[in-house]
Design goal:
The protein is mainly alpha-helical. The protein has 38 helices and no strands. It is 74% helix and 0% strand. The longest helix is centred in the N-terminal third of the chain and has 18 residues.
Length: 623
C-alpha cells in the first residue's frame, strides 16, 4: 500500500482502484496483484495468460496504458488474441485499430474470431487489408478466410484465395485443402469439390465428411453410398458427422434402403452415437413413411430433447395424423417455442386455422414468447380466415414488443392485409420495406391480382425486373391471374410465352389453368381447348373447372359434356363442378340431362356443399 501512495495522488487513486477491483471482482492471486503494481513487458504475458475473464483482461490493459507499455507489440498481440478468445470482437478490433503496424499474429486471430461470428464478411475485409499491408498469409490464415467464404457463399473470393494458396505453396496442407473443399460444397460446385477431394493425398475424416455432406446437399444419394463404401475400404471408421450426413440424404430423398443400412451398421458395429444421430434416425424413418420404426427408435432413446419430440410431432402431422401429433405434443416435458411452433404449423398445414389460433393462445398463456415463425403462422391463419382483427393484433404485438421485422415477417404481414381486404395498407408496408426478396414481389403482385388491379400488377412486375430481382414460377402464376381477372388477353399471352423464352421457366399446370381461365372469360373457348390439347402435362380438375365456368358463361353445353367425360375419367367428384353443370342444363331447360347429373351425385354419395361466405370460399380455394 505504501508503494502505491508514493505515486502522485491521481495515479495512486487509479492504481488503488484497479488493484481493489481486481482483488474483489476477479479474484486474481496475490502474486499477480503484486506484479500488477509495477508491471513490465516481461511479466505482462504471464498476467494476460492467467486472466480468465474479460474484466480481468481489461484491468490488465488499464495498467499497460498507465505504465506506458503500449508500444510493446508482443503484449498488444497477446491482448488482441485474448480478447478474441473471450468473445469480445469489438474490443479486440478496437485494440487492433490502435496498433500502427499490426503483425500477422494479430491479423490471424482477428480473422479467426470474425470467421466464427455472425459477421464473417469482416474476415474477408481484414484478409484484404492484411495482404495490402504486405503480410503474406500462412496455413493458419487461409482456413479461416475460406470458412468465411463458405458462410457467405463467396464463390469468386474462394477461387481467388484458392489460387493464392497454390501460388504461395500452401495448397498441399490438409487443413487448407479441407477448407477449399468446404467452400466449393457451400457454393454448390460439387464437381470442383470432388476434384479438390481427389487431389488430397492424405485425406482426413474431415475430408470424407465434407465430401459426403456435399453430395448429401446436392441430393446425390448414389454418390454418397459409393463414397461411404470407398471410405470403409480404406479402413477409415465413420464418426457421428458421417452418419448424420448419410441419414440426411436418406431423409431428403426417401431412400429407406440407405437409411436402414446405416441403422444396421450402427447396431452391428456398436459404434458410439450421440443424440444428434438418434434424432437423425427418427427423422429418416419418419420422412420415409415408416412411422412405427420411427416411434420404436424414439421409445428406445434414453435421453430426448426438443428435436426428438419435434421429429415425432412432424412425422405424424405430415401424414395427416393430427391427433397422434397432439398426443406426442402433450407428452413433451418442457415445451419451448420450437415445440409450440411445430404443433401450430401442423394445424396450419391441415387447414385447421381456428385450432392453430387456439394453440397460440395456449402458448402465450404458458409464458412462452412467440418468435418470427410463430407470428408468421398466426398471420397465415388470419389470411386464410379473412380475420383482419386477429392479423392486426399480431401486427400490433410486433410493434409493441419492438420485434425486428425480417423480410419473411414483412411478407406475411403484407399477405395478411391483402387477403383481408386492406390492400392499401399492404402496399404501404411493401413500399416501406428496406429489403425485398422475390417472395415480397410475388405477394404484392398476387394481392393486386386478387383485387382486380391487373394493370397495376403488370407495372409491379416490370418494377420487379428493373430492381434486378429474377421472377420465379409463382411470380408468373400471380401475373397470369392478374391478366385473367382484368381481361388482358394479349398481355397474358405475352407473359406466358416470356416464361420459357426469357426466364427458362416451363409452365406448370397452374399456369395453364390461368391461361384457360383467361381465354375462357373472354369467350375464346376454341383457343382454350387447343391450349389444353397441347399441354405437355395432363390437365387436372382446376383446368377443367376453369373451362367449365367459361362454358356456363357462354352457354356452350357441347363442350360442357366433354368436360363431364374428362372429370369422370379423372375419378374426381367435386360437388361444385357437377352442380355447375347441372345448373347449365337447367338454364337450357334440358331436364333429362340435369336429372342424370343429379343421379351421378346420388350414386357416388356426393353431397352439395352448404352455402359459405365469399371470403371463406376464397380461403378454401387458396389452400
Amino acid at each position: 500500500m505504501s508503494s502505491v501512495l508514493k505515486l502522485k495522488p491521481a495515479r495512486a487513486i487509479s492504481c488503488l482502484f484497479s488493484v481493489a477491483a481486481i482483488h474483489t471482482q476477479t479474484q486474481i492471486s496475490s502474486t499477480i496483484l503484486q506484479e500488477l503494481k509495477s508491471p513490465t513487458h516481461q511479466n505482462l504475458h504471464c498476467l494476460i495468460d492467467q486472466c480468465f475473464s474479460l474484466k480481468q483482461l481489461k484491468l490488465v490493459h488499464t495498467q499497460i496504458i498507465l505504465h506506458g507499455l503500449t508500444t510493446q507489440v508482443l503484449t498488444l498481440g497477446k491482448l488482441v488474441s485474448s480478447s478474441v478468445q473471450f468473445g469480445d470482437l469489438p474490443y479486440a478490433h478496437h485494440l487492433f485499430d490502435q496498433i500502427p503496424q499490426p503483425n500477422k499474429f494479430m491479423f490471424n486471430h482477428l480473422i479467426k474470431g470474425y470467421s466464427n461470428s455472425n459477421d464473417p464478411t469482416m474476415s474477408l475485409l481484414l484478409y484484404r487489408r492484411m495482404v495490402s499491408a504486405g503480410l503474406l498469409p500462412n496455413q493458419f490464415t487461409i482456413p479461416f478466410v475460406l470458412k468465411a467464404c463458405s458462410a457467405k457463399s463467396c464463390y469468386w473470393v474462394g477461387v481467388c484465395v484458392h489460387a493464392q494458396c497454390i501460388k504461395l505453396g500452401l495448397g498441399s496442407h490438409v487443413c487448407v485443402q479441407n477448407s477449399i473443399l468446404t467452400v466449393y460444397v457451400a457454393c454448390g460446385l460439387i464437381l470442383s469439390a470432388r476434384r479438390v477431394f481427389d487431389d488430397i493425398s492424405e485425406r482426413s475424416l474431415v475430408s470424407w465428411n465434407s465430401m459426403i455432406a456435399g453430395y448429401s446437399k446436392m441430393g446425390l444419394s448414389k454418390e454418397v453410398v459409393l463414397l461411404f463404401r470407398e471410405m470403409q475400404q480404406v479402413g477409415l471408421e465413420p464418426d457421428v458427422f458421417t452418419l448424420v450426413g448419410l441419414l440426411s440424404v436418406s431423409s431428403k430423398h426417401g431412400n429407406l434402403d440407405l437409411g436402414r443400412s446405416v441403422h444396421c451398421y450402427i447396431v452391428v458395429t456398436g459404434i458410439k452415437t450421440d443424440l444428434v444421430v438418434t434424432n437423425a434416425l427418427v427423422d429418416m424413418y419418419a420422412k420415409c413413411g415408416c412411422l412405427k420404426y420411427a416411434e420404436s427408435v424414439f421409445d428406445q432413446m434414453l435421453d430426448k430433447d426438443v428435436v426428438s419430440w419435434t421429429c415425432m410431432i412432424n412425422a405424424y402431422a405430415n401424414h395427416g395424423l393430427i391427433d397422434c401429433a397432439l398426443r406426442f405434443f402433450n407428452q413433451v416435458p418442457v415445451k419451448n417455442v420450437v415445440s409450440w411452433n411445430s404443433i401450430i404449423w401442423c394445424h396450419v398445414q391441415e387447414g385447421l386455422y381456428a385450432e392453430a389460433v387456439e394453440l397460440f393462445y395456449r402458448m402465450c398463456g404458458s409464458g412462452v414468447l412467440p418468435n418470427d415463425a410463430t407470428l408468421v403462422a398466426i398471420l397465415s391463419c388470419s389470411s386464410h380466415m379473412g380475420d383482419l382483427a386477429l392479423g392486426q393484433q399480431a401486427h400490433n404485438y410486433i410493434w409493441d414488443n419492438n420485434i425486428t421485422l425480417s423480410v419473411t415477417l414483412c411478407n406475411a404481414i403484407i399477405d395478411m392485409y391483402a387477403k383481408c381486404g386492406a390492400l392499401q395498407t399492404a402496399m404501404d408496408i411493401f413500399f416501406g420495406m428496406p429489403e425485398k426478396n422475390v417472395v415480397s414481389w410475388n405477394v404484392v403482385i398476387g394481392a393486386l391480382a386478387l383485387h382486380g388491379f391487373g394493370k397495376e400488377a403488370i407495372e409491379m412486375f416490370e418494377k420487379m425486373r428493373a430492381s434486378g430481382v429474377c421472377p420465379d414460377e409463382i411470380t408468373f402464376t400471380g401475373l397470369l391471374s392478374a391478366c385473367s381477372h382484368s381481361g388482358l388477353v394479349d398481355m397474358g399471352k405475352h407473359y406466358f410465352d416470356m416464361m420459357n423464352s426469357t426466364f427458362g421457366i416451363y409452365p406448370d399446370v397452374e399456369h395453364y389453368a390461368c391461361m384457360v381461365d383467361l381465354l375462357g372469360r373472354r369467350g375464346f373457348l376454341g383457343e382454350a381447348i387447343s391450349l389444353i390439347q397441347k399441354m405437355p402435362i395432363k390437365p387436372d380438375i382446376v383446368v377443367w373447372s376453369a373451362l367449365l365456368g367459361a362454358c356456363r358463361t357462354y352457354g356452350n353445353l357441347a363442350i360442357g359434356k366433354q368436360i363431364m367425360k374428362q372429370l369422370l375419367e379423372l375419378g374426381r367428384y367435386d360437388s361444385g363442378l357437377y352442380v355447375l353443370l347441372s345448373n347449365m342444363y337447367s338454364e337450357s331447360q334440358r331436364w333429362d340431362d340435369m336429372k342424370n347429373i343429379r343421379k351421378i351425385l346420388d350414386e357416388n354419395g356426393i353431397k352439395k356443399c352448404r352455402a359459405i361466405s365469399f371470403i371463406e370460399k376464397t380461403c378454401r380455394e387458396s389452400i
